[in-house]
Amino acid sequence: MALDPTQLTQLEGLCEAFYGGDVNQQKQAHEVLLPLICNLSCLPQLQALLAQSSNPHALMFAATALSKLFTSSWAQIPDNQKEETKTFLLNYLYKCGPDMLRTAPYLVGHFVRLLCQIVKYGWLDTLNPRPTITDQVSQFLNASTSHWIVGLIIFTSLTQEMQYSSGVYFAKYRRTALLFRDTALPTIFQVAMKTLRQIHLGSISITDYQEEYKLLKQVLQLIHNCLAYDFMGTVPDETSEEQNTIMIPHSWAVLREDYIPIIFFDIYAKCCSMSENMPDCATLCLQCLILVSSIRRSFFSTQAERTRSLAALMSGTAGIIQTRMGLDNENCFHELCRLLGKLNTANQLTELASTDAFNLWIEQVYSFTIKALEEWSVLPNSKHYLLGLWSHMVIPLLYQGNRSPSNLESFIYNVTITFIQSRIKIAEAISQGRDIEDPLESEVMRTEQLDVLAQLSRCRYHDVADYIVKLFEQVTSNVQNGVISQDCFISQITWCVYMHGALIGGHTIKLRRPLLPGSSGGNQNSIPDKSQEVSHHVLNGKLAQLVFRLLQQTDGLSDTPESLELAYLYFLEQFRKVCLGDYAKQFIQPDSEEATLASILGVESDDDVLSLIIGKIGRNLQNKCKMESVIKRSLNLFHELAAGISIVQYTDRTTHLIVSGRLLLRNEQIQKIMQNHSAPEFAFLNVPRYGKYRTSYYFILAKLLFLDLKEEENNHSSTISFEQFMQPQVKTFDLLWDEIVLKNNLNRISGFTGTPLSSNNTSLASAGYHPSQFRQPLIGLARDLRGICLACVGPESYNLLFNWLVNKPKQQGHSRVHLFTWAADQFWDDTDVMVALLKFMAEFVDNKSQRICFDRTSPNGILLFKEVSSLICTYGSRILSKPTASFQNIYKEKYKGIAVTLAMLCHALSGGYTNFGVFEVYNDQALESALRLACQMCLVIPEHDLQSYLKSLKSYYEFLELATRCFISTFITTLEPQHLAVICYSIESGLCAVDNVVLLACCATLDHLVSFIFTTIEKENIIFPSGVGISTNLNSETDAMENDNITSLRNGTNGISPEGKAIYRFLIEHPNSLVRIMQLMFNLITTGDLSTWTFSRSLLGMILLYRKEYELIQHQLVNQQVEDKRAKYQLLFKDLLKGTDGTLSTVSKDAFTRNLHYFAHMIRSNTL
Predict the structure, then answer these.
(1) Where are the alpha helices (H) located in 1070-1122, listed in sequence order?
(2) What are phi and psi of 761, to 5 degrees?
(3) Which residues form the Importin N-terminal domain (predicted)?
């Protein structure tokens, strides 16, 4: 199709307006041009625009639009049109590419990207593609320099395009990428290395500087792409690139040559010279060297080859540092730091030290590191690689002892001290208002730096600790003498506290392992003598003493900065790990009482040491409620103290279980907190936005309480009984129930058995009370109880809470737990109240760890479910009656509550503590009502919203699985056919979900549903009209053909059960619901990378139900293949039902599962 001049001019004008016009012009152009991108019939028009126009904007639009069309509609485009477009692009780039490269280089990228996408999708379609693209592009390499550059751009884009990523079609893309690796990529890499070698030897003569720059940059980028290719198909995590190993194919022998690093270093030097000045190319050289240094060990034939390559890398980097060549450029500086770090992580210290270049290299790296740390304001993120290099050398140094390289210990020590000094200088600069990123404000950066310091300080620990102690005292002295400002003091002392914690935390690695005291004496098998062990302990005590002294001073102030408070908590976290409890006593055994940790800190016993930590936690919870981070970290520390369990091997080689919670129970301050846990002094409990912290607080206290009660069984006196502990909650219940409900004309609740209070026209408002005044007590109560329930890990602790809540089991509606149904009636439209209440009930009915274990004669399981049903009916009926348009934030106000409600019902249904048959026998509607309301909740969530909030609405699919597994009859008869079709559509969408939990739930739901439908049809001999396509009562395809013309239902619907009638209506009114799912499953099986086992159970049932549709799907999939593959595909489909007997018996399902696995394997592996 050719465009006439008028059409061409019009399209070019629209493209000009689209990319460069004002807002109105862009909007008008967008409306006209958008159909060209979305409509496949416009493909010839776009191709004509690409061929005829010379307007840059028109060309860019045409290339972009064609790229989107080819990507979205590849299967619908004829093969000849694909090949013609590819040929046209190659010819166009050969003819016009050099001019475009000079005038509009960005256009080259659009054309090349389109070409590479066509090549990629062509490889996906073909089983054994020939790498003709390399032959076609080779014509570019034999022409002018500009053609050469264009050819390299094509190869560069192709290596990037062929990389695969995770997703539904991961397996198919992976096969193509690995095929590209084995066929075309070696040729491309050879071309790139040959070109680079020619540039290095000077055999390429280019007079134009710009062309030389573009050629060099392009060939370096191509080599980088080739080396960075994911050769193993593992899709590595890019966030941890420094740990990656490059799995170069063994056939790429050129990389074994020791001159390869030299080439890159020489070109780097050339690019950094004053005459050339190509910083981009210099950066690419270093990036390529990083990849070269990451090549797998087994790639080298001998260790000598690898050592020569390593020596060349070390000599080259030492030369760059020595001459400071290119290091004024930030990118070059950063990449050199990465390269140095990679050399260290990819090689052991012994390997580095075995090279002749090591002494020069380590000296240059040391001087480079010291200078970099002294220039602390320049590229701070790059210093991380240098610090990592030195920290990784500490452990090998500790083990090698006298065999370690000379001066390495002193180098590490000096780097450590310089790093500490740089943090103090940063603190001073920030206090002066300089625009510098503060590491203390970034938790990730702060943690990285402290971890490095903890590792570095293990070398010459005494010297480093002494230095930090002196630094701490100096900073304190400076502020007292007015040398530094208060702001500077706070910033510097915060760093000091953090560094004290890092040093002590470095001892969490086995304390029996030697720490260098002041020099690297001893050998790798040496055990430090007792005096050294004591000295470390005493030194840690001195470090802690300074911090605790400062902590006591600042706790009396009202304006202590949050950063300093967080530093205290970090220190306490590290201090707890090393210096507390039986664990520390086994390794820290001082000679005298004066050397104990308690004596150094100025207290009497280890329990008093623990009191220092507990006291700080308590004061934070009481006085720091405006600092959310401090509250959060304080509770985390409290939880670590309460829940810490360690398996420790003592010095006598015996193994002991250390439970730190027992240490807390003996502490007087903990006992006071347990007895006064809701005291007004704990101000954070009254902050509404701290609800989750309130739950954590009571979880910790309840964990200690139940541990204490368990200890009481072993003849230990308990601190407090459960009833005493719950007294504050009893008072809240009295306020909300006895004092409000019963005393204000709501005594009719005594006969309340599940009907909402409002049905009696009674409410708090009519009684003279405003509900809002009870809002916070309700939320707080629910939060408290949820935290306590979370701590119930066994039947003993759970029964205590159950008996407290269900305190009047024989008086229905009078137990404490029924308060939540009353609250749901009053506060159903208050999201904060309802989510808190529902989350507690969801936790309360969750039988995790089999903690809910009632006696066989106990009705507690039934009572518990009836409360759940009552709550669901009360809340559900009201939230469903509220018009959708009245919600301002529909997720928060509606879907969140529905999600928790469904989760609560799932926990109750799957708990195994309720005999649900009782409800039907005694005609109790609790179960049926709960299931009906839950189904209605599922149906009010639109499909778009369900997928948008899938993470929060997983309980939707979990409920469907449970309902169809345990209550399929009620489920089928409750839902109208159109509603069941909606459920099937949501299952269809769930099968494409990334979340594996959702996928498994959908497959299980389908299995239950299809099995029930199939079994019911067979059992009741239901016959469907021929147009529906259901194959019933048939055990063979012959029977199916013979009975195909039956057009009436046997005896109408007489004699058929309600379930059978519901199934008949659904399949008559929505015959395609299950067929669509079957089609989707086959698409996912043939093109995706999903487990066939998850699909097999439900898929067999649908095949047996819809034999004709299955044959149609089979026919379509076979016809999509090339001629020589169709017979093999046909045979695979024929064998798919081999071993099945036309039923859904276990034997039949197992046989189909095996057949389906083989079927998918053959198709996905392209072995046909």
Answers:
(1) 1073-1087, 1092-1105, 1107-1119
(2) 55, 35
(3) 29-95
Decide if 116 contacts 157 (C-beta within 8 A).
Answer: yes
Q: Which residues contact 66 (CB under 8 A, 6 or more apart)?
A: 43, 46, 47, 50, 85, 114
**Which residues does residue 658 pair with via DSSP β-bridges, in sequence order?**
646
Per the structure block, which two tokens stand in for 238?
């890019």
Report the pLDDT value the prediction gives residue 177, as an integer from 0 to 100: 83
For residue 715 the two structure tokens come to 């003849």
Q: How far apart are CA 666 and CA 681, in angstroms?
A: 23
Separation CA 110–CA 818 (nearest Å): 67
Residue with tokens 């309980």: 955
Model confidence at 1127: pLDDT above 80? yes
Residue in this structure with the two tokens 């997928």, named with its chain if needed: 947
What is the rounded distance in angstroms from the CA atom of residue 903 to the CA atom of residue 958?
8
Q: What are phi and psi of 673, to 5 degrees?
A: -65, -40
Angle at the Cα of 442 from the Cα atoms of 425 and 463, rounded to 5 degrees: 45
CA distance 672 to 920: 51
Residue 1052, classed as helix, strand or coil, is coil
* pLDDT recorded at residue 647: 53
Which run of H or E residues covers position 659? Answer: strand 655-659
Per-residue pLDDT, averaged over 316-328, amounts to 95
Q: Distance (Å, rounded) from C-alpha 354 to C-alpha 314?
A: 12
How far apart, in Å, are the Cα atoms of 552 and each of 560, 609, 616, 619, 830? 12, 13, 9, 11, 43
- The answer for residues whose C-beta is within 8 angstroms of residue 972's C-beta and 6 or more apart is 980, 1012, 1059, 1062, 1063, 1066
Q: Report helix, strand or coil for 295.
A: strand
Measured CA to CA, the distance from residue 582 to residue 660 in angstroms comes to: 9
Beta bridge pairs of residue 649: 655
Report the amino acid identity of residue 740.
I
pLDDT of 1122 above 90 = no
The whole-chain average pLDDT of the chain stands at: 85
- 3-class secondary-structure state, position 923: coil
Does position 1046 have pLDDT exceeding 80, yes or no? no
Per-residue pLDDT tens over the stretch 558-590: 789 999 999 999 999 999 887 665 445 544 555
Radius of gyration for the alpha carbons in the chain, expressed in angstroms and rounded:
37
How many Å apart are CA 207 and CA 210, to the nearest integer?
Answer: 9
Residue holding tokens 């008093």? Answer: 608
What is the token pair recorded at 946?
Answer: 């369900």
CA 636 – CA 118 distance, rounded (Å): 54
Backbone φ and ψ for 596, nearest 5 degrees, come out as -70, 155
Tens digit of each residue's pLDDT (9 = 90 or more) over 821-835: 988 988 999 999 999
Q: How confident is the model at residue 507, as a pLDDT?
A: 66
* Cα–Cα–Cα angle for 33, 37, 43, rounded to 5 degrees: 105
Residue 856 CB contacts under 8 Å (≥ 6 apart), including other chains: none
DSSP code string of 53-86: ---HHHHHHHHHHHHHHHHHSGGGS-HHHHHHHH
Q: What is the DSSP string of 617-658?
A: HHHHHHH-TT-HHHHHHHHHHHHHHHH-EEEEE-TTS-EEEE
Return d(Cα 931, Cα 355) in angstroms, integer. Answer: 74
For residue 506, CA distances in Å to 391, 458, 500, 1062 come to: 12, 7, 10, 68
Q: Tell me the two tokens of residue 405.
A: 């390289």
Contact 109, 77 (CB under 8 A): no
Q: Which of 384, 511, 374 is nearest to 451 (CA)?
A: 384
What percent of the chain clears pLDDT 70, i.e. is strictly above it? 85
Distance CA 506, CA 457 (A): 8
pTM score, two decimals?
0.84
What are phi and psi for residue 482, nearest 5 degrees? 75, 15
What percent of the chain has a predicted confidence (pLDDT) above 90? 56
